[in-house]
Write a structure and sequence with these properties.
mainly alpha, 2 domains, 6 helices, 0% strand
């Protein structure tokens, strides 16, 4: 891979991050990523995030390998980076979403009981 000028590289990445941040919806991000990346590239990124989530929940390498169809080397690579700020930020968002889903269900059930 050829190395581009550092200033240009900074601007190129800034544009990418801003485009994704501005997408505002899952559908928008999906459309943008599908246009910019191959299915294999998107799958690799999604699987790496899933590996981090599984590792955070204490799942075994064997279980992760079987479920996600990834190599132990890929799992180990993600495991080595588990303390990186980006992975920790992603895990916090996943946990917040899970928490919101749990409480949404509990609140719905409570409201149903009150309405009876």
């Amino acid at each position: 891979m050829k190395v581009m000028n550092k200033q240009i590289e900074v601007q190129v990445y800034k544009i990418l991050y801003q485009v994704l941040a501005d997408a505002k919806s899952e559908e928008g991000i999906e459309i943008i990523l599908a246009a910019l990346m191959s299915e294999g590239e998107i799958s690799a990124v999604a699987k790496r995030l899933a590996i981090a989530v599984f590792l955070d929940k204490g799942q075994s390498y064997e279980h992760i390998k079987d479920v996600l169809k990834v190599s132990t080397a890929t799992i180990a690579s993600v495991a080595e980076g588990m303390n990186q700020r980006g992975i920790q930020m992603a895990l916090q968002r996943v946990k917040a979403e899970e928490w919101a889903d749990v409480w949404s269900i509990r609140l719905s059930r409570a409201l149903e009981k009150l309405m009876k």
